[in-house]
Amino acid sequence: MGKSVWHIAATRVFTEIFEAVWDWAKEKLTTEEINKLLLATENVGISVWHISGTRVFPEIFETLWDWAKEKLTTEEINNKLLLATDNKGRAIWHIVATHVYPEIFETVWDWAKEKLTTEEINNKFLLTTDNKGRTIWHVAAKWGKSEILQTIWELAKQILTTEDLCNKWFLATDNTGRTVWHAALKRHSFLLWKLYEWAEEAKLTEEICNKLFLATDSKGKTVWQVAAEQRILMILGRLQSRN
Questions:
Q1: pTM of the full predicted structure?
Q2: Which of 16, 145, 177, 189 has the fewest Cβ atoms nearer than 10 Å?
Q3: Burial level of 201, CB count in 10 A (0-12/13-18/19+)?
Q4: Which of 117, 36, 110, 123 lies closest to 49 in space, CA to CA?
């Protein structure tokens, strides 16, 4: 599969395994060799950096991140860590947007604000999509990460134009035609209230708000039909009554 001991250790439940490998590497390998291993990818394009972003323990991610900040150049961090994608088209943003620890997302975001240009944040962070056509907005909504969604929203409303917020954010669809509303309805109906509040905050027109309720996915289902399947029509009805 092309996995190194780093990839394997980073997937273990016990952080002690990774720490043992890490301590050995610092003792026996040169900085250049460690950097090469940190940036190496397995056959599906996943680096140990990507893997550490999916784990339930933040210690491994923080260890690698601290090393990267100290030993890698800004260009290497930007192009080979922050903006690098795996074979599924996922950047680190998509991965940490699913994480149980919002502070991991914030760690990456703090670096991005400092080192990336506004254009890069716009096109390669907020609006970039994976191979399924999902932005980090879609991913965080699907996984019910309300704190991360809030962080993303605070950024988006500062950087994106009203037109982009409308067409590339609230009305944006993935490869199955699902909007962020469809994604949230699948598992996390409580997010609908926040999504609607943000739509109101963005001062979207009544016409746009109606489109949010009437948009259909690739199966021809509106959010109303999805809500009916999830037995949460009451919530959706209350939201539309506010429009």
A1: 0.75
A2: 16
A3: exposed
A4: 36
